[in-house]
Design a protein that fits this description.
Blueprint (H helix, E strand, L loop, with lengths): L1 H20 E2 L4 E2 L2 E2 H32 L16 E4 L3 E2 L2 E7 L7 H11 L4 H6 L11 H4 L36 E6 L14 E6 L5 E7 L25 E8 L5 E8 L15 E9 L1
Parallel strand pairs: 6-12
Antiparallel strand pairs: 1-2, 2-3, 4-7, 5-6, 7-10, 8-11, 9-10, 11-12
The protein binds 2-acetamido-2-deoxy-beta-D-glucopyranose (7 copies).
The site of one 2-acetamido-2-deoxy-beta-D-glucopyranose (NAG) has 5 residues, from loops.
GO biological process, one term: sodium ion export across plasma membrane
Membrane topology: Single-pass type II membrane protein
GO molecular function, one term: ATPase activator activity
């Protein structure tokens, strides 16, 4: 009885399904008349056209608002880092060790510095159309190169005084009074407050190890170099430098030196980013 019942139900189901797929009485295909299917298809086609249109419109308006003269993405708050040349890395960060009596221990460093400073050659800076901003009251006006193009203030090696190749062919390495070159990372539209220049101060972690230093051109990054407008607007911008000449130091001693930037909008006490606002390195000048 049961099996008979099941059989009937099964064949009934098959029949029902067949009628569902194509019902010759009502002319319905899958439960709908052909004309209804056409309407539904048209509805979905229209629906997707509108969706694609909205999507394209939003992408288009997004692209319109992104200016190529602005950075694509920038954190809300950014603080500049400090970098140093020569940047000779040891196992745990920058480690500058050389023997002032052995030329081959520092000739590579001198080469590296010459290479690094080549962009600051006066003729190179002039070719890049960078402007002499000293004694200029309206730097903004001087830097206008076009509607969206800007010149940059020049930074030339003669500003580095005793840390320039012209004054010392080994940048002080041969005499045991080496020069180190510091720069701030570029941050677009970063302006030190109130036109005060960010300053640099280098000191040894242990007091007394680093006794006397001299800064060129002085201990600050000139305010005229800020803000940096970005690579598209200001293609030939070169970072200003502070050269630190070590005048008096304990020789044959490995010491830890910190060069710290100070100024508004600069922080140098972030435990998660040791290079933010400062640079720490090991130094050992042997004689
Ligand atoms: C600067 O460039 C000029 C010409 O290219 C060259 O004669 C001069 O030696 C360079 N100066 C430095 C310090 O490299
Ligand atoms: C950038 O420097 C190049 C030469 O290196 C020069 O042709 C160009 O005009 C300069 N652009 C600006 C905006 O100063
Ligand atoms: C800028 O002014 C100082 C002092 O007023 C002067 O010694 C120097 O020669 C001037 N520099 C330029 C490029 O005019
Ligand atoms: C540069 O070095 C020379 C010789 O070592 C020294 O007489 C002079 O005072 C130094 N210049 C500065 C600005 O320290
Ligand atoms: C900027 O300078 C003005 C006066 O010169 C002073 O009142 C203001 O506090 C300064 N702002 C900052 C952030 O130092
Ligand atoms: C940093 O600069 C501020 C003024 O901008 C000054 O008051 C403060 O003493 C400086 N700190 C150091 C460690 O030099
Ligand atoms: C530095 O080099 C000189 C000359 O080669 C050598 O006498 C001296 O021991 C070296 N100093 C150190 C600390 O290695």
């Amino acid at each position: 009885m049961a099996t008979f019942n099941e059989k009937r139900t099964c064949s009934e189901r098959m029949q029902n399904f067949g009628r569902f797929v194509w019902n010759p009485d009502t002319g319905e295909l899958m439960g709908r008349t052909l004309i209804k299917w056409v309407y539904i298809s048209l509805y979905y086609v229209a629906f997707y056209i509108v969706m694609i249109g909205l999507f394209a419109l939003s992408i288009y308006s997004l692209m319109k608002t992104i200016s190529p003269y602005e950075p694509d993405y920038q954190d809300m708050i950014q603080y500049p880092g400090v970098t140093i040349r020569p940047d000779v890395y040891g196992d745990d960060g920058i480690r500058l060790i050389y023997n002032a009596s052995e030329e081959k221990s520092y000739s590579g460093i001198v080469k590296m510095i010459r290479n690094f400073l080549s962009v600051y050659n006066k003729t190179t800076q002039q070719e890049m159309m960078n402007k002499d901003c000293s004694n200029v009251s309206d730097v903004k006006q001087l830097l206008m190169a076009g509607e969206r193009l800007k010149y940059a203030c020049e930074f030339t090696t003669d500003m580095l005084g005793n840390c320039s190749y012209e004054k010392d062919k080994t940048f002080g390495y041969a005499s045991g009074q080496p020069c180190l070159f510091l720069k701030l990372n570029r941050i677009i539209n970063f302006i030190p407050d109130n036109k005060t220049s960010p300053t640099i101060r280098c000191y040894s972690k242990k007091e007394g190890e680093l006794q006397e230093v001299e800064y060129f051109p002085n201990d600050a990054f000139g305010a005229q170099y800020f803000p940096y407008y970005g690579r598209k607007t200001q293609p030939n911008y070169t970072n200003p430098l502070v050269a630190v000449k070590i005048l008096k130091i304990m020789y044959n001693t490995e010491m830890e030196i910190v060069c710290r930037a100070n100024g508004s909008h600069i922080i140098s006490d972030n435990p998660h980013d040791p290079y933010e606002g400062k640079v720490t390195f090991k130094l050992n000048i042997q004689k």
